[in-house]
Amino acid sequence: MPTTVLGQNQYGKAECRVVKVVRDGTTHHIKDLNVSVSLSGEMDEVHYSGSNANVLPTDTTKNTVYAFAREHGIASAEEFAALLARHFVAGQEQIHRARVRVEEYAWDRIAATGHSFVRDGRETRLAQVAYDGEQLQVIAGLKDLTVLNSTGSEFWGYAKDRYTTLPETHDRILATDVSARWRYGWTGADGAPAPDWDAAYARARTHILDAFAETYSLSLQQTMYRMGSRVVEHDADIEEIRFSLPNKHHFLVDMEPFGLKNEPDAPGGPVYFAADRPYGLIEATILREGAEQLIPVDLTTL
Ligand SMILES: O=c1[nH]c(=O)c2[nH]c(=O)[nH]c2[nH]1
Fold first, then answer.
1. 142-302: which CATH topology?
2. For 144-170, how does the pLDDT look when each residue is reduced to its tens digit (9 = 90+)?
3. Which residue in 212, 233, 250, 287 has the fewest CB atoms around it within 10 Å?
4. In sequence order, what are the beta bridge partners of 287?
5. Which atom of ligand 1 lies nearest, measured to the CA of 222?
6. What is the pTM for the complete model shown?
7. Which of 173, 222, 282, 283 maximizes ligand 1 atoms within 8 Å of its Cβ, making it the mutation to test the pocket?
8. Ligand 1 centroid to 268 CA: how many Å?
9. Separation of 211 CA from ligand 1 center, angstroms?
């Protein structure tokens, strides 16, 4: 009989949807989160013999998420995740590591009342906090931040082989849905105060957008590098940032059959076909010199 041993394992409750309302008189404030908890530690026995003695139920982790929202409020995705991660490791000696992931959805106020909201169409804010009993690792980010430059983008001078048909262009649309994760150097270990998470998030988002808008682009790779280096250069707390950027191709429609010209600078403006697939997928990590690359390569796993 071949023998087996247990490898990496973790467990917890995924996707606890928690909505916290703060009532400030008749003006309400909303935090809308999707929280996933993963715990690991001395969990051999539950796998080998079925003894649950070391297993804090996933139902309890779910309850803790809701109870903490009530007892502590939700100051920011990062702070809430760190609070939970510390709690699970500190509270159960058999649990050595906790990872808490948060997606945050934003709501805009509808003017008529203090308690009416419309889900805003912006990006989703992301936070992941891991705690090993000593150090926190905080990775924040965003996904589905959709941006488009209607000019100021070229793509030419690339390598060619017998299968290359792409025409070189000196004026194209550049569009992408930004997915980015950045890691903070702060670990909570040396008593240093935590960054202001909301301000740091807003800064990173602004630098990403400004670099996208201000870069005259020769490739999405170049634009991506500028976005990343701008974030790292402007925020001493951020050690590295990783992007996954679909190149959302917009092709000029061939109007020759209709006897119409359709050039980027045509009078009245050009018409494009927005292709949804396949798309180029451009990915990279941009690091502070000397920093370690700790953000996983595949952002869909984070
Ligand atoms: O910005 C781009 N980078 C590429 O690597 C690439 N490849 C391609 O076909 N179009 C583009 N555009």
1. Urate Oxidase (3.10.270)
2. 999 999 999 999 999 999 999 999 999
3. 233
4. 240
5. 1
6. 0.94
7. 282
8. 27
9. 19
- pLDDT above 90 for 302: no
The dihedrals phi and psi of 244, each to the nearest 5 degrees, come to -130, 110
CATH fold group of domain 10-134: Urate Oxidase (3.10.270)
**Residue of 29, 58, 96, 115 with catalytic role:** 58
DSSP state of 256: G
> How does the average pLDDT of the chain come out, rounded?
97
Show the DSSP H helices in 22-119 as ranges.
44-48, 58-72, 77-91
What are the tens digits of pLDDT across the range 33-56? Answer: 999 999 999 999 999 999 999 999
Q: Reduced to 3 states, what is the DSSP secondary structure of residue 53?
A: coil
pLDDT for 190 equals 86
Task: Write the pLDDT tens digit of every residue in 80-120.
Answer: 999 999 999 999 999 999 999 999 999 999 988 999 999 98
Residue 249 known to be catalytic: yes
Residues 6+ apart with CB under 8 A from 247: 174, 175, 176, 220, 279, 280, 281, 282
How far, in Å, is the centroid of ligand 1 from the Cα of 148? Answer: 15
Annotated active-site residue 13? The verdict is: yes
What is the rounded average pLDDT of the residues 14-24?
Answer: 96
